[in-house]
C-alpha cells in the first residue's frame, strides 16, 4: 500500500524558514517523480514544485521560485521542501504527491497524495 | 495555462447525470486529469490522460475532450459523489488546476 506522510508543518513567523519532509513507502520510490501541492484552507489547489525520479528535472511555481527548494533522497525514500523567506500568503496545507510516472509533467499524473501538513505563517 | 471550470458550483440529486467542463487557455492535449476532494481529505485521482479511469474508480465517472476542453461526467450521482472536483493540466509548466467545482446535494 502506497503511503505518503508529511511532517514539519507548524506556525512560523514571516521571513523565517521551515523544512517539510515526506516519508514514502509501499512503492519503488526512485521510479517516480514527486511533487508538492498546497491548498489554502477552503480554497483551491496550487502546484508548488516537482522533481523527477533522479533529481535531473526540478521545477517550481513562480510564486515560490528562489525561496523554496525541493529535494529527494532515494536511499531514504524521502522528499523534502525547504521553505525560506516565508510570507503570509504561503499559509496553506502542503501535500506530498506521487506522480504516475518518472516524469514531472506530461503523463506524470498525481496518483497518490499524503494527508497534508499545515504551514501557518504569522507573527 | 489557465483552466476555467464551469460551473463553479452545482446542486444536484442522487441519480442525476452531471457534467463539469474545464476550458484551457491553450491546448492541453490529453495531458489532463480530474480529481475529487472531500472535506478534510486529500484529493483523489479519478481520470487521467483525458479519459482513462484510475483503478478503483466507479465506472459512472467518465472523461472526454480534446484540444482546449476537458469534460467530467458522472452518469448517475451517488451520495458519496458530493464533493469538490478539480481539473488539471500537465501539458506545460507550471502545472495548473482549475478553480474547482463544488457539487452539492439538492
User: Cα distance, first to last residue of chain B?
Assistant: 33 Å
The run of helices and strands of chain B is EEEEEEEEEEE
Roughly how much helix do the residues of chain B carry, as a percent range? Answer: under 10%
Mean pLDDT of chain A comes to 96
Structural shape of chain A: globular
Distance between the termini of chain A: 40 Å
**What kind of sheet is the major sheet of chain A?**
7 strands, mixed
Helix content percent band of chain A: under 10%
Structural class of chain A: mainly beta
Q: List low-confidence stretches of chain B.
A: none
Number of H/I helices of chain B: 0
3D structure, described in words:
The complex is a heterodimer of chains A (123) and B (106). In chain A, 0% of the residues lie in helices and 50% in strands. Chain A is mostly beta strands. In chain A, the strands form two sheets. In chain A, strands 2, 4, 5, 6, 9, 10 and 11 form a seven-stranded mixed β-sheet that branches. The radius of gyration of chain A is 13 Å and the shape is globular. The mean pLDDT of chain A is 96. By secondary structure, chain B is mostly beta strands. Helices cover 0% and strands 50% of the residues of chain B. Chain B is built from no helices and eleven strands. The mean pLDDT of chain B is 95.
Layout of secondary structure:
The complex is a heterodimer of chains A (123) and B (106).
Chain A: E1 3-7, E2 10-12, E3 18-25, E4 34-39, E5 45-51, E6 58-60, E7 68-73, E8 78-83, E9 92-99, E10 110-113, E11 117-121
Parallel strand pairs in A: 2-11
Antiparallel strand pairs in A: 1-3, 3-8, 4-5, 4-9, 5-6, 7-8, 9-10, 9-11
Chain B: E1 3-6, E2 9-12, E3 18-24, E4 32-37, E5 44-48, E6 52-53, E7 61-66, E8 69-74, E9 84-89, E10 96-97, E11 101-105
